[in-house]
Amino acid sequence: MGAEPRESSPRTVNVDSAGVDEVGVVPWPSLVRRRLADRVPIERNWALLIVVLSGLFTIGVTFTILVVELQTIAREFDSTVSVISWAITGPMLAFGVVGPAYGKAGDLWGHKRVFVFGLLGAGLFAALTAIAWSAASMVAFRILSATAGAATGPATMAYINRLFPPEQRVRPLGYWSFVNAGAPVIGVVAGVPLVDAVGWRAIFAVQAPLCVIGVLLAWRLLPDTERVPDVRFDIWGSLTLGLGALMMLTGVNQSPKWGWASPAVVLLLAGSVAVLILFVRIERWVSDPLMPLRWMRTRNFVVPVASQAFANFAYMGGLLLSPLVMSEILGYDSGRISLVIIARPLTFALLAPLASLATIRVGERQAAMFGWSCILASMLAFMFVDESSGVMLMVAALALSGAGFGIAGPALTSLVANSVDERDLGVAGAMQQLVNQMGSVFGSVVMTTIQVATLGAGLETSYHVTFAVAAAVSGVAVILAAFVRSTPRTA
């Protein structure tokens, strides 16, 4: 049989809804317009991601920006550094503690409303911080600003999980992880030149109008999220979880100053356990719990959250101690420390988006194990730092830490989001954030305590022992990551 003659125009075998005419000729102009139209929602989703991440960054970057000016602010208010330090500690505790309540409120009443009013409140109290007249007013306004701004955390994650399907969430969550974990680090790095250039009050005077601009953009551009009908807000669950978490975080945070055996610390820690037990009991009998207890039996919720908490122990503890290593062992001044420590957020920013593309191919389990292994390698590298070490060892140790969290963090966050019902995305993300915050506080305090307790063996040895403990904790994170199940993906 002879070959059929070629047609002068492309043809299709099946007639479908793509727009094929009656004789089978593909109308290419129509298809191009249709494809461009299909891209509009994708580009729109990324534009909305920029809006919510900008609000989250505006809140988070100011948490640590005053860390270099505590002494100066204390002198200005005729106060002490221990009092002014609550302008840093208080906002970080508040941001994690009230998150679950905001997450639930957004799931019930719409995350756009929660995001907008939270950002507006943060801007208002930022403006008041700029005109604070005493140490007490300054600390109070900073805590209230972070308490309001904490709404941006769960709302941002909820928008990501609604704008992107489960198999595509890793990449946007990479950007979310960078902003959420990287903004405080950038605050530390940028704090020295910014405060020297404009003063600490000007920083909050600028933050306030930025929050207002964010409010206007969010109100104009963000779509409303669906609201859960006929569900009550779990007031008692929110109060007991927030109180229990606050007592535990405060007790751990203040233990180096007050002593682990001090009555105040013992009372706070024991009280937190009692209140959290009460929270679990409340969640068992309320009709609409803040945290469905079935999550505790879900592998891809419990294991990723626990794995991240252990990794945060080493990650944040290493962030706190690495400047001290450079100062006390290597003799670097503050300017050089600021330059070297940039290696950490820089690798985080560069690798998180790229790693998300690899995660889509290899799966969250492999990405998480590799990422936490990088943090383990980072802690081991810190163990070998001595007075003869070159700057490249410090850069490598810091870069491994940033790369590890940039690779593993988004992968496990995506698994948590994919393991819960869509209507619970806000509170699930906030619960994950709270547990991560606990891991960070425990790591910062425990690693500092170990370093001080082992000073008798020598300065270098004290840091080596501390980072050995951090390496062991990182190993636990790697082991836990091996038990998660990657999200099934089609070709």
Commentary on this structure:
With 491 residues, the protein is mainly α. It folds into 3 domains: 189 residues, Growth Hormone, Chain: A (Up-down Bundle); 54 residues; 197 residues, Growth Hormone, Chain: A (Up-down Bundle). It has 19 helices and no strands. α9 packs antiparallel against α14. The radius of gyration is 25 Å and the shape is globular. The N terminus is likely disordered.
Question: Summed up, what is this model?
Answer:
The protein is mainly α.
List the helices and strands and how they pair.
Blueprint: H1 28-60, H2 70-76, H3 81-84, H4 86-97, H5 99-109, H6 111-130, H7 135-149, H8 152-163, H9 170-198, H10 200-221, H11 235-258, H12 263-285, H13 299-328, H14 334-341, H15 343-362, H16 364-383, H17 391-418, H18 425-453, H19 459-481
Helix pairs in contact: 1-8, 1-9, 1-10, 4-7, 4-11, 4-18, 5-6, 5-8, 5-18, 6-7, 6-8, 6-10, 8-9, 8-18, 9-10, 9-14, 9-15, 9-17, 11-12, 11-18, 13-14, 13-16, 13-17, 13-18, 13-19, 15-16, 15-17, 16-17, 16-19, 18-19
Separate helix tally: 19
**H/E element sequence:** HHHHHHHHHHHHHHHHHHH
List low-pLDDT spans.
1-40
- Rg calc: 25 Å
Largest sheet: none
Number of domains: 3
Mean pLDDT: 80
Strand segment count: 0
Q: State the oligomer.
A: single chain
Q: How much helix is in the residues?
A: over 70%
The CATH class label of the largest domain is Mainly Alpha
CATH topology of the largest domain: Growth Hormone, Chain: A
- Report, as a whole number of angstroms, the end-to-end distance: 38 Å
CATH architecture of the largest domain: Up-down Bundle
Assign the structural class, choosing from mainly alpha, mainly beta, alpha/beta, alpha+beta, or little secondary structure. Answer: mainly alpha
Q: Could you say which overall geometry the principal axes of the C-alpha atoms support?
A: globular
